[in-house]
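tool_log.txt
---
The assistant was asked to compare two proteins side by side. It first ran the structure predictor on the initial sequence, then on the second. Raw inputs and outputs are pasted verbatim so the downstream comparison step can read them without reformatting.
(1)
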Amino acid sequence: MKTRSIQLAEVLTIDRTAASDGDCRTLPYVGLEHIEKDTGHFAEDFRQKPEILLATKYRFTHRHVLYGKLRPNLNKTVLPDFDGVCTTEILPLLAHPQTLDRGYLYGALLSKPFVKWATNNVSGANLPRLDPDRLLEYEIELPDLSEQQRIAAQLQQADRLRRSRRHALEFTDTFLPAAFLELFGDPLSNIGGWATQILDTCCERFIDYRGRTPEYSSEGIPHVTSTCIKEHEIQWAAAKYVTDATYVSYMTRGLPARGDVILTTEAPLGESAVIKTDDRFSVAQRLLLIRPGLSILPDYLCHLLSHRSFRPRLLQFATGSTVKGISSESFRAIPIALPPLPIQQKFAALVEHVERLRAAQREALRQAEHLFASLLDRAFEG
């Protein structure tokens, strides 16, 4: 494949057209917070809506590529399919269609060589930015237009695949909350008229982990903090590590076991997960370990505690003016409805099925992400 090295200044324009008051009132606004790091996608919570901010904004169209110049190591680049306005920390780039394909430019800006170059060419200590004039000096390896379009089409196809994998996983994540409501109803209304008990009588053990942050090591035993508890799972990739000696000294309050439920007791309050491993790990402060008794299954307790409709009850027993937290003593006094075990077992079977499905979907998403990254590497590093 023949290419020529050319500066971006020759093949694109940084379009700093100021948005009018009418544009700002009617067109969707894009800020840096609306663009994901590294993925080339808008954030999941981004909604196309105007935001009236007292600041200058740039106007962009569906023909632009949006590039975040602030902290370029975050690699915030997207291809909008709509017209809108954006913060001036985002540069609307307009490829010259006779020489540079828009999709090829998008891939080049996401590539490792460009991100490394941009990170090494920032100015400003506290808020490092890539100067727009410096951006235009970047030399890109440019094949002929038909080859650019072929590469861009491959990237687009791979991107569609990873988007569809992500959407499938997001859809699956909505199933269990809906199934919980279908089987048990609203957690606070107890429409089934089931017996009510306080947690102290239907659970066997409570361990309120406290203490200083331990000294971490580069490897060893995982140390689970409140940030690791998300979506009813322990996110092991987010865990740090402690040595064997630190683990022994830190876990004197008691060890977690398979089937226990972990609850975050403060900032955030109410995230929960069931322990489904026999491997050793240490537990950080602001986490409460609950061992369910014979009348309550771990999956039911876990999803009950983290259900959005149950949060008002947790807050009712929490203390603190600025940051709400709940102690082991207060938690024990919370009343809950106890559905018959066969209904809990039906829900637990659904949880097991969905967890297997999610594992398969995550692997499919990982493969799609790997495909996209491989195509980027082949096009812009090879």
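(2)
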Amino acid sequence: MVDAPAISVIIPTYNRAHLLTPSIESILNQNNIGVSYELVVVDNNSEDDTRRVVEMFTKAGENVRYLIADKRGTSNARNCGIINTSAEILAFLDDDVRAQPDWLATIKRTFDENSDVAFIGGKVLPSWNQPPPSWLTHEHWSPLALVDYGDEGFVIDWRRQVCLVSANLAVRRTSFAKCGLFSSDLYRCEDHEFEVRLLKSGSRGLYVPGLVVTADVQNERLLKSYHRSWYSEHGRTLAQFRGYEETETVVGSQQATLRLFGIPSFLYGELLSNLAHWFRASIRREDSKAFYFECHARDRFNYLRVLFRERERAGWRATISEVFLFSKHLALRKLKKPAKY
């Protein structure tokens, strides 16, 4: 019996044959320093030359496997990779991402040195195909799946929740056994939802600034229309698993327990605050800042919209005391400030 590799690298892909080769080569050209690994490319039923591209590597005797995920969706592809591998560490890349030469070695060393950590992630830095517009500052990186939380590592737990995106994520196999696979019901934010489940179970993560990948930024993602659409869908998706409410409840905020129509008051406050900041920045002609608050207002609005539809189906009910407490709270407290711009 052949021993299982230390790390299984899983790359889900769909109709991106033209981007896939650099991603695969970035793993094959690693400075492994004795780290055993396998690379598994999971094809989400692509209609282009994806299979041919991967088979060029398999026929050349490279350490690459090709799988097909029958069901469409990135989560289904990643889950197919998880089920069909045996390494104790599962490392995830996107098909438009290139790992730095020490990526595998950094993953192995970090897990060896931190036996209590369930998952790790690091920086996802941009590779621009054209200069970004002036408004697209670091604060607007989320829709691009870019990450840079600084050069100091930190532990991720209930008190400090940040999302380590699946473009640069490594997870112990035992974490999937404990909390299940990626949710196939979500169009996006499946990495966020999975990490919330891990944190709820008592697991911890680690941001590792030296774990670096580079991502191509497609030109269409430089458009404001793309960002508006992304934030609207992001709000709707997070509402499916109550992503904002999980965070607020965990840190013990009083707002999380104060509700109107069963919806936490902080969600109303964040929407109104973002609208107010959007208006003020627009008046001052601060384009980048105004767009930031516009996008976050869209996010919270669509989050609330999903909750309101659920309440409508269940029937509207609010006690007099609930309305009174909510009104009193808004009257006595300044609007909660959104994340720093």
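---
observation on (2): The chain has two domains: 7-222, 235-332. The first strand starts at residue 7 and ends at 13.
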